[in-house]
Specification:
The protein has 211 residues and is an alpha/beta fold. The chain is built from seven helices and nine strands.
Length: 211
C-alpha cells in the first residue's frame, strides 16, 4: 500500500456548525502533500482530529495500513505522526537537548540520566544540515531554529508523517529556503509531509500533490 496515511469519512461538528463533512485524504509515502483552503475551511480542525486534540464525530484514520486513533499529540508522536506548528510547545527556559528528550530521558545502568548519550544523539540528529547550538536555551533561538528542533524531535521518534502548519509565516526568505531543503531531504528518506499553507508560490515549489 503506497498510502502511508488515509483518512476516510472524517466528520466534525461544533454544535450545529459542521466543519468537516465526510472528508477523505490520502498521503503517499515519501511525498509532500499540500493542504490548502481559506481560513475557516477546516484544515486545522482536520489536523486536530487526526492528532486526537479533538475527538472526531465520524471517520477512520489508517496509518501504514493499520487503523489508528490517537488520544493526543504525544500519543500520535509516539506512533509516528508529528506536528510542527506556529505555537511550538517547547520548554523555552531549557536547552535544545532537554527539549528533544522531554518525557523520555535515557538513563544509564545506575538509573541516572545519561547526559552524554543525550548530547551524542542530539548532535547526530542535527547533522542533517541544521546548525543549532544544543546548549542554548530555546528562548534565545529564532522561530526557524525552534522549528528545526521540532523536526529533529520528529525524526528522533521515527515519524512516518510530519505535519507542518503554516511554518513559514514568520521566517525570512533564507530560512524558508533552508526549511524546504530540509523537507526535500526528509522526503527523499521516505518520510511523508503534510504542508498546510495558503501561499501559492510555496505550495507549487515544495508540494508533490495538493488537496
Amino acid at each position: 500500500n503506497e498510502n502511508i496515511l488515509s483518512i476516510r469519512g472524517m466528520s466534525k461538528s461544533f454544535g450545529r456548525n459542521r466543519v468537516l463533512d465526510h472528508i477523505n485524504l490520502d498521503v503517499k509515502k515519501g511525498t509532500v502533500m499540500g493542504l490548502m483552503g481559506e481560513n475557516g475551511a477546516g484544515k486545522s480542525t482536520m489536523m486536530k482530529c487526526l492528532f486526537g486534540t479533538y475527538q472526531k464525530d465520524e471517520g477512520t484514520i489508517y496509518l501504514d495500513g493499520k487503523e489508528v486513533s490517537f488520544s493526543g499529540p504525544k500519543d500520535a508522536l509516539e506512533n509516528g505522526i508529528a506536528m510542527v506548528h506556529q505555537e511550538l510547545n517547547q520548554c523555552l527556559e531549557r536547552n535544545v537537548v532537554d527539549n528533544l528528550f522531554l518525557g523520555r530521558y535515557p538513563v544509564n545502568s545506575f538509573g541516572m540520566i545519561d547526559e552524554g548519550r543525550m548530547k551524542k544523539e542530539a548532535s547526530e540528529l542535527f547533522k542533517l544540515g541544521m546548525t543549532v547550538n544544543l546548549e542554548q536555551p530555546m528562548k534565545n533561538m529564532s522561530v526557524s531554529q525552534r522549528q528545526m528542533c521540532e523536526i529533529a524531535k520528529a525524526i528522533s521518534y521515527n515519524s512516518k508523517v510530519i505535519v507542518l502548519d503554516e511554518p513559514t509565516s514568520s521566517l525570512t526568505v533564507q530560512e524558508v529556503e533552508k526549511l524546504f531543503q530540509m523537507m526535500r531531504m526528509l522526503r527523499d528518506q521516505g518520510i511523508s509531509l503534510i504542508y498546510i499553507s495558503h501561499k501559492m508560490d510555496e505550495i507549487f515549489e515544495i508540494c508533490d500533490e495538493i488537496s
